[in-house]
Amino acid sequence: MHGVATFVESKKKAVSKEFLSGLSEVQLQAVENYKGPTLVIAGAGSGKTRVLTYRIANMLADGVNPHSVLSLTFTNKAAAEMKERIKSVVGEKAKYLWMGTFHSIFARILRTEADKLGYPSTFTIYDTTDSRSVLKSIIKEMNLDEQVYKVNEVHSRISLAKNNLVTPAAYANSSSLVTVDAANRRPRIADIYKKYMQKCYLSGAMDFDDLLLNTNVLFRDHPDVLNKYQSIFSYILVDEYQDTNMAQYLIVKKLSEQHKNLCVVGDDAQSIYSFRGAKIENILNFRNDYPEYQLFKLEQNYRSTQTIVNAANSIIQKNSKQIKKNAFSAKEVGDRIKVLKAYTDQEEGFLVAGAISDLLYREHCEYLDFAILYRTNAQSRIFEDALRKKNIPYKIYGGLSFYQRKEIKDMVAYLRLIINHSDDEAFKRIVNYPARGIGDTTLSRLEEAAAANNTNIWTIVTQAPLDKVGLKGAAIKKLGEFAELIQGFQASIYTENAYDFALTVATQAGIIKDLKEDKTNEGISRFENLEGLFNGIKEFEENAKESGEPLPITIDRFLENVALLTDADSEKPEDKNKVSLMTVHSAKGLEFKHLFLVGLEENLFPGQMTSQSQEDLEEERRLFYVAVTRAEVSATISYAQTRYKWGNVTSCVPSRFIKEIDSSYVDWNEDSLFGTSSHSTASSSNSYNLQGFKAKAGSVSAQRTVAPTPQHRPASVISDPADMTEVEVGMEVEHERFGFGKVEALEGTAPEIKATVNFTVAGTKTLLLKFAKLRIVKR
DNA sequence: CGGCCCCGCGTTTTT
DNA sequence: CGCGGGGCCG
Q1: Nearest CA to A485 among A466, A460, A511?
Q2: Are A597 and A628 in contact (CB under 8 A)?
Q3: In DSSP terms, which residues pair with A766 in a beta bridge?
Q4: Measuring CA to CA, how many Å separate A733 from each of A333, A705, A718, A773?
Q5: What pLDDT, on a 0 to 100 scale, did the predictor assign at position A761?
Q6: Considering only A173-177, A759-763, A764-768, which range has the smallest mean pLDDT?
Q7: Which residue, A411, A417, A416, A349, is CA-closest to A380?
Q8: Nearest residue to B1, CA vs C1'?
Q9: How much is the pLDDT for A611?
């Protein structure tokens, strides 16, 4: 062993390290010093991926065995790209690196070690839909009020617990958790949690959180297994460390104990996943965990203009929690950040699409130079419509993933059930698809019996006397046929190619016939989606063959990671040169020449749930920071004054974040950007704009002290919650339509405060302050 | 048991 | 507005 290592070591001098020549001094340092605990604080656009890539490439060039390097990334796509880049530097051996997301890497390890935890190695990974469905049936089974025990909220409580390694028993004993639940009148969450874990276990299933939780359990209860992986992984690298949660933190900590070659890379300013349990403290406390650590700060931004970097700095400075760093750009100063005001959400789409086609024409840009980023997926539609009208090609990331579509989930459920008969969610999904006369009544009998006998549905169907379960002859016969159908595939799972196998299943189960029969547009598109899945299987098969894996490439291999796949992992080449539409969250790590950041309104960005607490608001601000720092050359921010929400028009207030950008980096010339009249179908009245925003914008730091302009009176329109509390009985106010009046009464609490106002002309009206746009005339 | 219709509810964000 | 769930009827 030693001899080989020495031989490889001695060869290293011969290996060309030309690839290091383009690095800056500090980047080079971070690449070359790959031993010992290392923290790399990498500001936005500072070449973080480069450092990570070359750090690994450099190790491999020095003779480090790729099998001993574990590199954890945030998305599968990031992992694949990094692997590709390393391959191009050091060659084929890069493919032996352990590189992937926490979830996919540890799912792999858990499959290998499954028996130690009492799971089958073929365990199913439940996605969010599956988890919710399980919880829903538990809540029903326990006769709890579904209005009080809302599935989503129960799920996030359980998820929170799992991410913090709190077992059901510990949950019941945790006074802080129990207190919160009691306050929400949900005292039985710990019981639900317990049942949920049992049900998943009986179904041979792990949810996303279990992949991390059970890895911890595995390492805690099986020191030999821990020791094995500690020895395997001589070098561990973690990207986006600021977004790791407790469970992930502990996995990394334990695994790196032996070799202590742990390198974490991240940027506290870009921590945006606390809603799913990420702990910004992990990166802030790294120095306490490893006092002997080396620190590298990548502060130069190679991506964006000075204006964008400085603007972004001015935003993030408003946050209290952060590691000090001095992000700067040596690129050109660049244009100021433009602000677009739209009267409606539709017009916002129109303006943005117009601005894009304008830039395309003026600046020789390509479609791929543009991105439109929004806070919530629901906003995409407007921009799709606007871009389509202008014949601008676009692609959407996120939203309903391919694998979430019904027809795909149905097909996958067949495969899941065939490979893991215990998978109750898969069973429930397909037992009557295509329709074979097995209805709700039969299914709930089976579920009850399974719960009563502490087992899964499949066991009941195949082993219990079904007449005792309360089922009749016809139902029993149909169930028998279904079970036979599923069992019939058993023999060829591990002998047939994945594609052929799946096709047989789809045919024999009647899925293909069912989809072909539907001649509606949706039916056709569902069939095409299924074809897409089959193409995906074929592609998987070909890739596996190419990398020399043992034949045949079987369906279980494909299925292993399906739940962890996202659309971003499989971009089609024809989609390359298109405008990108995505949420700010999914834009993390990406960059675009020209960036459009849309929907900058209170209660949208920052979101309505988040402007309450200081912590949530700081996370929203980091999200805003992430968004702005995606831009290389130009950034444009837009907001609408009215927007459709749940089918109703609501009026919107520009986001506080716009005002937080240092005004010297912002171009407020909202109206003259594209000519004044060409687009303004809805802009006949501009009383809105005069009242609303410009006057405030002038005084960036002064919160609510607005300098009156001669023409237009003080513009403190009462529409954000902070301002509402200023209204008092007896004040004189002005309303757009009703004119002047006096406040006679107030009721409710912000933001739902109602005011009764006696208007001089219009008479007495009761108005919701958040919509009424009242202006205080005399206090 | 299956299909249709109506009602109610929701929107952060993702592995 | 769009989806999913529940209820009702054939």
Answers
A1: A511
A2: yes
A3: A756
A4: 45, 18, 10, 10
A5: 64
A6: A759-763
A7: A349
A8: A439
A9: 67
Is the pLDDT at A757 greater than 50, yes or no?
Answer: yes
- What phi and psi, each to the nearest 5 degrees, are found at residue A738? -85, -10
Q: What pTM, to 2 d.p., does this model score?
A: 0.82
CA of A570 to C1' of B5 (A): 39
- Per-residue pLDDT reduced to its tens digit, A548-579: 888 899 999 999 878 787 666 566 777 788 99
Provide the pLDDT for residue A254: 96
Active site residue A49: yes
Report d(CA A567, CA A175) in Å as an integer: 41
Q: How far is the CA of A646 from the C1' of B7 (A)?
A: 15
Nearest nucleotide to A404, CA against C1' atoms: B14
Q: In whole angstroms, what is the distance from residue A339 CA to residue A641 CA?
A: 13
pLDDT greater than 90 at residue A676: no
CA atoms within 13 A on the CB side of A211: 22
Q: Which of A127, A181, A209, A239 is catalytic?
A: A239
Q: Which residue is nearest to nucleotide B13 (CA to C1')?
A: A585
Element (H or E) spanning A383, and its range?
helix A380-389
Residues A417-434: b if buried by 16+ CB within 10 A, e if exposed: bbbbbbbbbbbbbbbbbe
* Higher-confidence position of A54 and A732: A54
Q: How many CB atoms lie within 10 A of CB A11?
A: 12
* Structural contact between residues A471 and A437, judged by C-beta atoms closer than 8 angstroms: no
CA dihedral sign of residues A402, A405, A407, A410: positive
Residue A645: phi and psi, rounded to 5, are -135, 120
Chain B positions with an atom below 7 A of a protein C-beta are: 1-3, 9-15
- Residue A152 pLDDT > 90: no
pLDDT digits (tens, 9 = 90+) for A83-92: 989 999 898 8
Taking each helix axis from N to C end, the angle separating A25-32 and A48-61, rounded to the nearest 10 degrees, works out to: 40
Q: How far, in Å, is the CA of A530 from the C1' of nucleotide B7?
A: 32
Please pick, among A49, A459, A462, A725, the residue that the annotation labels catalytic: A49
| Listed range (A29-38, A93-102, A540-549, A596-605) with the worst mean pLDDT | A540-549
Contact indicator for A765, A757 with CB cutoff of 8 Å = yes
Active-site residue among A48, A162, A409, A696?
A48
Find the farthest-apart pair of alpha carbons in chain A and give their distance in angstroms, rounded: 97
Å between CA of A646 and C1' of C2: 9
Average pLDDT over residues A178-202: 90
- Which has more pLDDT, A441 or A579? A579
* End-to-end Cα spacing for chain A: 85
Active site includes A270?
yes
Residue A681: predicted pLDDT: 34
Distance A324 CA to C1 C1' (A): 46
By DSSP bridging, strand A754-759 and strand A763-768 are: antiparallel
For strand C, give the nucleotides within 7 A of a protein CB: 1-2, 4, 6
Indicate which residue of A75, A124, A215, A270 is catalytic: A270
- Nearest nucleotide from residue A437 CA, by C1' atom: B1
Q: What is the pLDDT of residues A224-246, one digit of tens each?
A: 999 999 999 999 999 999 999 99
Q: Which nucleotide is nearest to A563 (CA to C1')?
A: B15
Active site (annotated) includes residue A630 = yes
A239 is catalytic: yes
Q: How far is the CA of A428 from the C1' of B3 (A)?
A: 19
Choose among A259, A212, A199, A264: nearest CA to A238.
A264
Pick the residue with more confidence: A754 or A46? A46
Phi, psi of A97 (to 5 degrees): -65, 145
Mean pLDDT of A653-669: 90
Residue A292: closest CA among A37, A649, A1: A37
- The whole-chain average pLDDT of chain A stands at 84
